[in-house]
């Protein structure tokens, strides 16, 4: 952040959305690791650890991947539906891309609740993510009379799509942790600092700035045991 924190906070992510995000993220990472093991593991781990360990590794990967995949698919759809309103492309998102998210030229670029980059990640999940989930279902349930060619196409679409998403997810994870000071605390505590909101999501900030709360108010709310309020939304 360029300016100092004001200490006033905005609730960006409700407890429900944080739980959903971290469950989807954990499942995604588990599926990526077990999927990579199913695709390439034998070239690495079989030679490294020998047949006995490898047999255990591949059997465990297969069971985890096949059972967690459908759960991931259902939760991904729920997350995408919950976030669709915030991710509708707007004119200012094109400007965001043209200015490289603020890296080209001077000053900050306009962004609503989600900026252009986040919307791109959202729509990649809503397109390629759904293709990977759908092809996964075709592979998981081979008992619907689908032919060998359908299974082969499903296999290719699933592997290529999942590898692409895994690569892009590394960018999302970097930006969500080391890349953007103050972003991760939003997804862990729910709250972001007013300065962060102003600098990264100025249009959202303008719409919800009357809902800021001081750190003292937040501490008092927590001590009083009042339930989790809903995220700041334009009134
Ligand atoms: C360790 C891994 C991850 C970290 C540290 C992380 C971090 C974050 C953070 C900090 C945000 C909030 C950004 C903001 O407030 O503007 C966010 C949003 C989001 N994350 Fe993650 N994330 C991770 C993995 C994932 C994975 C694997 C997925 C999907 C499969 C995912 C999907 C999303 C989506 C859809 C959003 C909302 C973006 C939008 O509304 O456009 N995240 N993530």
What do you see in this structure?
- It is built from nine helices and three strands; from the N terminus they run βααααααβααβα.
- The radius of gyration is 21 Å and the shape is elongated.
- The protein has a single domain (8-223), classed as Fumarate Reductase Cytochrome B subunit.
- It is mainly alpha-helical.
- The structure holds protoporphyrin IX containing FE.
- Protoporphyrin IX containing FE is lined by residues 12, 21, 24-25, 28, 79, 83, 86-87, 114, 118-119, 121-122, 125, 169, 172-173, 176-177, 183-184, 186-187.
Largest beta-sheet characterization: 3 strands, antiparallel
Distance between the termini: 27 Å
> How much β-strand is present in the residues?
under 5%
**Topology order in helix (H) and strand (E) letters:** EHHHHHHEHHEH
Please state the overall shape, judged from the principal axes of the Cα atoms. elongated
Q: What is the strand arrangement across the widest sheet?
A: 2-1-3
CATH H-level homologous superfamily name: Transmembrane di-heme cytochromes, Chain C
Number of domains: 1
Output the CATH topology.
Fumarate Reductase Cytochrome B subunit
So what's the CATH class? Mainly Alpha
> Which second-level CATH architecture applies?
Up-down Bundle
Helix content: 55-70%
Q: Indicate the mean pLDDT.
A: 95
Radius of gyration (Å): 21 Å
SS-based class: mainly alpha
Flag low-confidence runs.
none
Number of helices: 9
Strands, total number: 3
Q: What small molecules accompany the polymer chains?
A: protoporphyrin IX containing FE
